[in-house]
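User: I'm putting together a teaching handout on how multi-component assemblies are represented. Below are the sequence lines for each component of a complex, exactly as they appear in our records. Could you produce the 3D structure of the whole assembly as structure tokens, so the students can see both representations side by side? Please keep the chain order the same as the input.
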Amino acid sequence: MTNLQFIEKFTIQNSTSAFSCDNVLTDAYDIYCIVSKNIKLVGTTQTNLSMRFLDSSGNAITGANDYGYAVRSTPANTSFVNSTDGSSSLIQNAFGKDDGNEGASAVIYLFNPANASEYTYGVFQSIGDNGTNVETYKGICLYPTQATVRGFQVLETASRPFDEGTISVYGVR
Amino acid sequence: MSTSEFSYIPESPEQSFGNNKGIFTPTDIYDLTRADKYTNYGQLELIETQTVSGVTTVDFTSIKEDEYGVHLLIGHGLNKSTSDVVCLRFYENGVLETGSVYKYGYEELQSNLVGQQIRSTAQTFLQFEVANTAEDTAGYNYFYKLGDNTSYSYQTSQYINDDAPRIKFYFGGGSLPQNSIVDGFRLFTNSGNNFNGVFSLYGLKFTL
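Assistant: Of course. Below is the structure of the complete assembly, with chains in the same order as your input.
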């Protein structure tokens, strides 16, 4: 039976454009569950909240072609759209989107992150605000490199930082 | 609790989840568990299961919104006497919110037909499931920030439905865009038909 085993909880307390959760992904588990809640932007302009992985030294993996993702967004107020990129520097909307007061949330599963002989895969469902309405994201992602990933990062790339939220990391048995 | 806290002599080391030291009495374990400092794996905690048959509403009114920041509701064996949709409304401080304040976007995928986009910016409910059939549905909803009166309450969902000869898959989410404390929710059929099902509500520990 699946069992979530708590590893660590992170609290975002200061304004930042990139918040790292380091040393949480080890070979103790093959599958990890990341639960984020209430990530709030400092400003009030809708901003994507994306994800990057941390390598075996704790550095963010930022190469222009390091990630692949496919996301389906289902907003309440307009037609649903796909966002796909097979050679990206980040995983878009993994942590949702926010525009100030609503607080984005997500559940993300990662597979094989600490296994140096496997790619790291992920599936996620996130939710946030697109400026006027709720918007949900369902996605898949890939770090197609046989290397150890020991952590991850929530980030925005539009110079609109966030300053609130929690991220809880669990191993899955 | 004993003078020698948590049975450690002569000094009491700092105790925390995943980092307990010492030999513990049942009382120590009880106290540490209540303080969230005892390592006890299994952070998906069952709050309540309701098994219902031939009903038009199901209420969850003790959801421990002050203990969990994220809830998981799993439903299976869900079927209806006649084609209908099982919807969801939140209780805010014990009062059922029935206004046109809910917003959602759900996508339907079908095994042999084109699916559809189901969305609203002014609805009187969210939808636990969107399968407008009588046949079996199973799936889950996550709820975020129900007990937080400084943020909106969010729902994400996905489920599968047998609508012979096709299978339907749904995913999406919605919100109650009000800064309020949600302390319960109601499942109900939109057209008032009876439904059966098993619904289990869990809290994810360490998400406050």
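A couple of points students might notice: Chain A touches chain B at residues 2-7, 9, 35, 37-38, 40, 72, 74-77, 79-80, 101-103, 105, 107, 125-127, 129, 133-136, 138, 166, 168, 170, 173 (CB under 8 Å). Chain A has a mean pLDDT of 95.
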